[in-house]
């Protein structure tokens, strides 16, 4: 298998590593397996060590469908989203912590139509190598958007309903006005984009790695078409979720298991607080709800619930079927 590069998929020290397709032209999904060897928290792909934590990865065709299983009625629904092309496990916490259903052939990350808390009636989930799909909770497929550059990673919505979708392989950002249409593709300072989120003023923030493999936090100010790199007053080891929590812009550090709470002025993010999660193996995506935060734990292979902003040990652990959790999001009817 000839390859031209590697893609770090957002997930733990974890990130998932897959090989990019030969040449520069878009290609259809492939089922060819990687030549990989699991080495602790790293993965050797064709002899080269990359950050990863998933054995015998394959790139699977992924198109949005729904499994015909029964979902118990509830007010709140949480989604633990597994590896690309697998499924999202559905929960109804705090009614229970057991799995109540699935959405098939999705995987990666999710978002919803609020900045934090519980989404209103819908969630968005990455649904393929070049797709993202909207669901009416708990699991009714509403529509699917094509992501022009392929390999979508994170997603975020502002209060106007615009949808921002990041690119794993080259750091580009697609903005879908009113979460529809073909999207506007924008080149960013990142080589790999991992997580994104809007703040209360409509500014879009996202993180990842530069071409020099350095962590970077980037902002697209509301109404602007120019990106700016934000300098943080502390070091972030490995990119994690970026989300507004009602007071601060938060960046989760997958390496330390901590939320960093920032105030942002111009191109400077000043650390105002740190929230530590105990017992988490590797929260790939997190979602801050109301007084709690959900963790899709790629290392422990489950979903966890913590108090926020108190942090500490989990107050609940989801039980069910998991396949390398990478994302999580929550919504209500």
Overview of this structure, please?
The protein is mainly β and 333 residues long. It folds into two domains: 6-51, no CATH class; 76-332, TolB, C-terminal domain (Neuraminidase). Helices cover 0% and strands 47% of the residues. It contains no helices and 30 strands. It has strands at 6-9, 16-19, 36-39, 42-45, 48-51, 76-81, 87-91, 101-104, 110-111, 119-120, 122-128, 131-136, 140-146, 152-157, 163-167, 173-176, 184-186, 192-198, 204-209, 215-220, 228-232, 242-244, 249-253, 258-265, 268-276, 283-288, 292-297, 302-307, 311-317, 327-332. An eight-stranded mixed sheet has the order 18-19-20-21-25-24-23-22, with no helix packed on it. The protein has a five-stranded mixed sheet with strand order 8-7-6-30-10, with no helix packed on it. Residues 1-72 have low confidence and may be disordered.
List keywords for this structure.
mainly beta; Neuraminidase; eight-stranded mixed sheet; disordered N terminus
Concise summary:
By secondary structure, the protein is mainly beta. The chain is 0% helix and 47% strand.
Question: What is the tally of helical segments?
Answer: 0
Main beta sheet: strand number and arrangement?
A: 8 strands, mixed
Q: What global shape is seen?
A: globular
How would you classify the helix and strand content by structural class?
Answer: mainly beta
The share of residues in helices is under 10%
Instruction: Tell me the count of domains.
Output: 2
CATH superfamily of the largest domain: TolB, C-terminal domain
The residue-averaged pLDDT reads 83
SSE succession: EEEEEEEEEEEEEEEEEEEEEEEEEEEEEE
Distance between the termini: 47 Å
Strand order of the largest sheet: 18-19-20-21-25-24-23-22
pLDDT below 50 for ≥5 consecutive residues: which ranges?
1-72
CATH topology of the largest domain: Neuraminidase
**Approximate strand percentage:** over 45%
């Amino acid at each position: 298998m000839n390859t031209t590069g590697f893609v770090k998929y957002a997930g733990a020290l974890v990130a998932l590593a897959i090989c990019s397709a030969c040449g520069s032209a878009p290609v259809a999904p492939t089922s060819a397996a990687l030549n990989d060897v699991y080495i602790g928290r790293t993965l050797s792909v064709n002899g080269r060590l990359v950050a990863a934590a998933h054995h015998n990865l394959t790139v699977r065709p992924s198109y949005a469908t729904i499994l015909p299983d029964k979902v118990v009625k509830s007010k709140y629904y949480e989604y633990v989203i597994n590896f690309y092309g697998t499924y999202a496990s559905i929960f109804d916490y705090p009614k229970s912590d057991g799995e109540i259903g699935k959405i098939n052939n999705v995987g990666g990350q999710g978002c919803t139509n609020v900045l934090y808390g519980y989404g209103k009636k819908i969630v968005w989930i990455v649904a393929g190598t070049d797709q993202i799909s909207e669901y009416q909770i708990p699991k009714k497929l509403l529509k699917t958007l094509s992501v022009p550059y392929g390999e979508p990673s994170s997603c975020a919505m502002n209060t106007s309903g615009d949808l921002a979708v990041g690119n794993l392989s080259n750091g580009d950002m697609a903005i879908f006005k009113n979460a529809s249409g073909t999207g506007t593709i924008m080149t960013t300072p990142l080589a790999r984009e991992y997580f994104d989120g809007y703040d209360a003023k409509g500014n879009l923030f996202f993180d990842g790695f530069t071409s020099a493999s350095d962590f970077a936090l980037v902002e697209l100010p509301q109404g602007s078409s120019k990106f700016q790199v934000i300098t943080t007053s502390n070091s972030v080891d490995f990119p994690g979720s970026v989300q507004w929590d009602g007071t601060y812009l938060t960046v989760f550090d997958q390496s330390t298991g901590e939320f960093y709470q920032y105030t942002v002025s111009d191109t400077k993010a000043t650390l105002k607080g740190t929230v530590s999660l105990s017992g988490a193996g590797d929260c790939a995506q997190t979602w801050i709800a109301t007084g709690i935060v959900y963790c899709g734990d790629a290392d422990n292979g489950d979903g966890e619930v913590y108090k926020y902003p108190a942090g500490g040990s989990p107050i609940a652990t989801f039980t069910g079927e998991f396949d390398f959790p990478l994302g999580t999001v929550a919504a209500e009817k």
